[in-house]
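job 3f2a | input accepted
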Amino acid sequence: MGVGVGVDDGLVAELTAVRHGQSVANVAFVAARAAGRIDAGVTGRDADVELTALGVAQAAALGRALAADPPIVRPPEVVVCSPYLRARRTYAIAAEAAAAAGLALPAPTFDDRLVDRLMGRFELMTRAAIDARFPAEAERRRTVGQWDYRPPGGENFADIALRLGSLLADLNREHADRRVLVVAHDAVVVMLRQLIEDLSNDELGRIAAEGGIRNAGITRFSRDGDRLVLAEFNTDTHLVEVRAD
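job 3f2a | predicted structure (245 res):
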C-alpha cells in the first residue's frame, strides 16, 4: 500500500520519473563483465559521464513521444533534473526534439537530491574490481546485504530514500496539483517506488530481478485522493524502433 499524503499538505497531480538515456558507463560496465575484465575503462567523475549515441537517440525519442498526439504521458508542467551530465543532456535533447515537434517543455531546475547513488571511494569501479582490491569490503557487503551496505564515503539505499523523501515533500508542497517530471537515475526510480508504495526490500529485490530500470524508460505515479499510486512502470514503447543512428 502506498504512503498517504494529506491533501492539506499538498500533493502533485502526477509524478513521472525517467531514467537518463544510455550512458558510456552503462555500456562499459556490461562489456567489462562480459569480457571478464575487472576495469570498465571509464575515468573521471561519475557526474560527468556522457550519453552514448544510442542514449542521445533515446532522449530524442522521449521528446517526440511527449509531443505526440496523443502523448505518451501528459506533458509536464514542472521539470526537475539530476545535475549529472547524462540526466541534464537527456532532458535537453528531449526538450529540443519536443520543440521541433511543436511542444514547448518547461525549463528544468536541478536538484542534488536526484543524483545517482553515491559510491564514495568506489566511484566508477566495477563489482569485480571492488571484490579483487577490497576483499574486506566485499565481505562486509555480503554480510549486511545490498540494500544496507554503505561503501566508504558513499550511500546505502536508506540514505537515498532519506534525500528523496525530502524532495517529495518539497515537490508536493511547492507544486501541488501540477504534473511533475523528474529526470534522474535507476536508483532514484527504484527508491521513489519504495517511498511512494511503501515497498519492502524484498519487493525491491523482485523489481531488480525483473531486469532493472530501462534507459529513458517511464515510470508514472498519479494522484488518487490523498495519495500517489503507480500508474505505469518502466514503459519503453517509445523506444521500440530507436537506433543509435
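job 3f2a | The beta strands are 14-19, 78-81, 109-110, 179-184, 218-224, 227-235.
job 3f2a | closed
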